[in-house]
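Exercise 7.
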Amino acid sequence: MAEPRRDTHQDHTAPKAWGRAVREAEARAWDALVATARRTVADGLVVGTSGNVSTRVGDTVLVTPSGVPYDRLTPDDVTGVDLEGRQILGSLLPTSELPMHLAVYRTTDALAVVHTHAVHATAVSTLVAELPAVHYMAGALGGAVRVAPYATYGTDALAAHMLRALEGRSACLLQNHGTLTHGAGLDQAYDRTAQLEWMCRLWLTAASVPGLTPSLLTPDQLAEAGERLRGYGQRG
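Solution. The predicted structure, written as tokens, is:
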């Protein structure tokens, strides 16, 4: 009996089509990443290139390069590493904060990370070990936002401190440094960063009134708010 005829055309084109789809997905993700990075500057969350942004596409992490102004980035500047930090896309050096980004992707199901040096959030990081629960939107971040102890930027020690502060949370403050948030996409990670900065500004404003102390929410109140916020917005 003759052997079944193999469809050699399908064998050769399927990998090519898959590879093309991956490249197209990475290109779209890079465009979105650059747009988000530029938004952090436009909204005053970073100055110059002081923050960084990343997004995960499969096992590839696209990340802003080190020391390059975001308005100069083009599609040809795509910078990507694998989950071990080995560069697999582009020639520009990845951000020096790569250890923090990779630590998040290795330990959570996050698909985007935003790190900023937002003024009010950084100020709060120098004052307290945890952002006081001054608003129920802290529930959207998993609860009271912790401050990771200081460590030199770009080090594994900083990444380790950050992971402990992030336990059960999607945001943390970095002492004398800034913020880090993660999410299911760039929009969510960015929105969490903006919300965190707003809450820090709110607490600093309320706490600055002489003779008065801001009222704070209890852990139970934050947990209840978090449950309600999970169902917030449009369905579908």
